[in-house]
UniProtKB/TrEMBL annotation:
Keywords: FAD, Flavoprotein, Oxidoreductase. It comes from Brachybacterium sacelli. The keyword Transferase does not apply. Gene3D superfamilies: 3.30.465.10, 3.40.462.20, Uridine Diphospho-n-acetylenolpyruvylglucosamine Reductase, domain 2. InterPro entries: BBE, FAD-bd_PCMH, FAD-bd_PCMH-like_sf, FAD-bd_PCMH_sub1, FAD-bd_PCMH_sub2, FAD-linked_Oxidoreductase, Oxid_FAD_bind_N, TAT_signal. This is FAD-binding PCMH-type domain-containing protein.
């Protein structure tokens, strides 16, 4: 999940996979297996399940199209799932062959590369239903936030969407779900899940709710894909017809005035305000006004859920801090929330690093300016501080595995690099994280973890100790063989 101030191609990996699935007949009426690319596989006892592609098959490479192409996969098979039964077949086959299983819908978060195992593509499981009476949504694991936003908006409702409409709803929510539009007002997306169906390592389809499979319900909301493959999810929506939202962009040279003013302003802002500040390297061809194209800028991103006139009065002090190059903060329908961050559509090779901050004193801001500001040689596309607090700091009524709620900010950096620049970007990202050690909580927001932060100790540090220990217990109970390890893995207990 990235946070750039620009957009690229409108063709998303999930859309390409859906096209492949339809071409192959997986999404056709009655789920017929249509194309020669799909094997008429023998029965499960004799070989792999139906609806799958092997290396060398037409469509195999396309089926793994993903947003973040910084890592590569070469699975034994890609299972193109349309129904939960396809997921069950894949898991049972993998169990019989002692193979690990990974799942991918949109491919936003890079986890770990692998050259064996089974990859279950859930992009074709893209049903959405909105219940306006109960203010809830039900989605399949292939659904993106843009689809939920459009359908919910017909009823004046909205969900706790990520920064981009191309982000998958289920994967984002299982990692916590930090909304840049509504997070401080309503908490994490995981806090509002009402139930889900999940295929566990034994191939069983289980229903997890606050009253049924309680431990599994607790663990998967925050524990990501370590416990099985979610095949449907129900969650709460909120009445949000419009936002007062957008970005104020300033010259990077103004950072020493802008960043302290933003920090102090945000500290006094009501919970209806969700906000972040970032150094952004704007591409020359970005769909943004001329004053910022090709420039490094400081972008203050603001979302206010309330009356536009009140929002204007709240934001106006930021407009007075320094000359504003671009001011897109205005009343917008919720369906335009993606314009707050203007994330790229991808695909792109993204290299990310992250930590959580307990505070943001002047010394921390100066360290960020020194390494990411106008006079720096930063190769990073974005260096962001996102304010937490508000409802994000409170435990939900039904607890989950999202921890480190005491943190005041996320610190996140991302670089988009061709092969010859990868090591420079990686080392600079690590340098940026190192500069924040004095103010870091030592934890991390799970959805921002990169493939370079998949070491077991990195994953352990993303959770508070008591939550991690409980997650290990649930993992041991439902996936003792660690089938679902091709992720930011929480291993089961040994012995």
């Amino acid at each position: 999940m990235t946070s750039h101030e620009y957009a690229t191609s409108p063709t998303t990996p999930a859309l390409r996979r859906r096209t492949l699935l339809r071409a192959g007949g997986i999404l056709g009426a009655a789920g017929t297996a249509g194309a020669a690319a799909l094997h008429a596989a023998p029965a499960l006892a004799e070989g792999p399940p139906a609806h799958w592609l092997r290396p060398g098959d037409p469509g195999y490479e396309e089926s793994m199209a993903r947003f973040n192409v910084s890592i590569t996969h070469r699975p034994e098979a890609v299972v193109l799932a349309q129904h939960s039964s396809h997921v069950q077949e894949a898991v049972r086959y993998a169990d019989g062959q002692d193979l690990p299983v990974a799942v991918m819908a949109t491919g936003h978060q890079a986890s770990v590369p692998f050259d064996d195992g089974i990859l279950v593509s859930t992009a074709g499981m893209d049903g959405v239903r909105i219940d306006p009476r109960r203010s809830t949504a039900g989605v399949g694991p292939g659904v993106r936030w843009s689809e939920v936003a459009e359908k919910a908006a017909h009823h004046g409702l909205a969900g706790l969407a990520g920064s981009s409409g191309s982000v998958g709803v289920v994967g984002y929510t299982l990692g916590g779900g930090l909304s840049p539009a509504l997070g401080r007002l309503h908490g994490y997306a995981a806090d509002h899940v009402e139930g889900f169906d999940i295929v566990t390592a034994d191939g069983e389809l289980r229903r997890a709710t606050p009253e049924c499979e309680e431990d599994l319900f607790w663990a998967a909301r925050g524990g990501k894909g370590n416990f099985g493959i979610v095949t449907s999810m129900d969650f709460g929506l909120f009445a949000v017809p419009t936002l007062y939202a957008g970005a104020l962009m300033f010259s990077a040279e103004a950072a020493e005035d802008v960043l302290p003013a933003w920090r102090d302003w945000a500290a006094e802002a009501p919970e209806e305000v969700t906000t972040s500040a970032a150094f952004v390297q704007v591409p020359p061809d970005a769909p943004l006004p001329e004053p910022v194209r090709g420039k490094r800028v400081v972008s203050l991103r603001v979302s206010y859920d309330g009356d536009a006139a009140d929002g204007r009065r709240l934001v106006d002090p930021l407009r007075e801090v320094a000359p504003v190059l671009v001011d897109s903060v205005a009343e917008i329908p919720f369906t335009d929330w993606g314009a707050i961050h203007n994330d790229p559509e991808g695909p792109l090779p993204a290299y990310e690093r992250t930590t959580l901050l307990a505070e943001l004193p002047d010394e921390a801001l100066q360290a960020i300016i020194n390494l990411a500001g106008a006079e720096s040689e930063s190769p990073m596309s974005l260096v962001e501080v996102r304010q937490l607090g508000g409802a994000l700091a409170r435990e939900p009524e039904v607890g989950n595995a999202v921890g480190h709620r005491e943190a005041a900010y996320t610190f996140f950096t991302i670089g988009v690099a061709p092969p010859e620049q990868v090591e420079d970007v990686r080392s600079y990202g690590e340098r940026l994280i190192g500069s924040m050690v004095a103010w870091s909580t030592g934890g991390a927001y799970v959805n921002f973890l990169s493939s370079d932060e998949s070491d077991p100790e990195d994953v352990r540090d993303a959770y508070v100790p008591e939550i991690y220990d409980r997650l290990v217990g649930v993992k041991t109970a439902v996936d003792g063989s660690n089938m679902f390890r091709l992720t930011h893995n929480i291993p089961p207990a040994v012995g």
